Structures are given as C-alpha cells and as structure tokens.
Amino acid sequence: MLIEEKRQQMIELALTYGLTAKETIQCSQELDELLNIQLREALASKQHHYSLSKSAYLRIE
C-alpha cells in the first residue's frame, strides 16, 4: 500500500505546487524507487520459481 500512498502524495503535491516543483519531483523520484524495488522483487521471485520448477523437472527425468 506504500506505493499507492506515495502516488497520492505526489498527486497532491503536483496539484498544490505544480508538476515541476522541487517537492513534486522529489516525491516522484521516491515513487520511482519504490516501483523499482517492487519490480526487482517480482523478477527475483519469478526467477526463483522458474529455477525451482526447472530443477524439479530435471530430477524427474
């Protein structure tokens, strides 16, 4: 839920200060970092799952 909260904060800052305001840009960068972390975790989980399923398949043969 942290991503949605940060997104809402960014929207509110943009409406208050404008899209190019220092506060809005900073919040946008923080949101980007949260999204990047989520993406890295999702990719790592997917690779781990693939690795496990592949090793299970190899053991069956």
TrEMBL record:
Positions in coiled-coil regions: none
One Pfam family per UniProt: SpoOE-like
InterPro entries in the record: HLH_DNA-bd_sf, Spo0E-like, Spo0E-like_phosphatase, Spo0E-like_sf
Domain of life: Bacteria
Name of the molecule in the record: Aspartyl-phosphate phosphatase Spo0E family protein
